[in-house]
Amino acid sequence: MKTSLLHVRINVQNLERAVKWYEDVLGYKVAASWPPEKPNYVHFEAGRGAMFGLMEHKNFPSPGRFNFYVNDVDELWEKLKGKVEILEELFSTPYGSRKFTILDIDGNELGFVQDNL
Q1: pLDDT tens, 87-110?
Q2: What is the Cα–Cα distance from 71 to 103, expressed in whole angstroms?
Q3: What is the DSSP string of 25-42?
Q4: By the 8 A CB rule, do 81 and 74 touch?
Q5: Helical ranges in 10-102 per DSSP H
Q6: What contacts 66, CB < 8 A, 6 or more positions away?
Q7: Neighbours of 3 (CB within 10 A)
Q8: CA-based R_g, the chain, Å
Q9: Which of 27, 65, 93, 115 is most deeply packed, by most CB within 10 A?
């Protein structure tokens, strides 16, 4: 299977503190946050390469999530769902993609996403 890594997220202990550090020290600018009512996730403006995000997460200090964009997420879901530990079942997001998330054998979160449905 060919994949394209387009989104990397690291887990942080305190989102507000982490965002301030990335903005003040590195000059990053937040492009979006989620969920709207009480964000626990942000991603920064992206140029070329992978989108970079932060999430306030109970699994801090685990490495975070690596989202791989695939052509047919439904087909991959059917292939993997009985063979892996599932963190998030396949679902459609409110922003137009479909995705699911699994854990690898070391507990790293691997997301598989299909955009532009």
Answers
A1: 999 999 888 899 999 887 767 788
A2: 20
A3: HH---EEEEESTTS--EE
A4: no
A5: 15-26, 73-80
A6: 5, 7, 8, 9, 108, 109, 110, 111
A7: 14
A8: 15
A9: 65
* Rounded Cα distance, 59 and 13, in Å: 9
Q: How far apart are the C-alpha atoms of 58 and 13, rounded to whole Å?
A: 8
Q: How far is CA 76 from CA 5, 90, 112, in A?
A: 16, 10, 8
Give the whole-number percent of the chain exceeding pLDDT 90: 40
Largest CA distance in the chain: 44
Edge-to-edge, what's the strand order for the sheet holding 98-103? 30-34, 41-44, 51-56, 4-12, 65-69, 109-114, 98-103, 85-92
CA–CA gap between residue 107 and residue 117 (Å, rounded): 29
**Model pLDDT, residue 68:** 84
Distance CA 74, CA 102 (A): 14
Helix (H) or strand (E) holding 54: strand 51-56
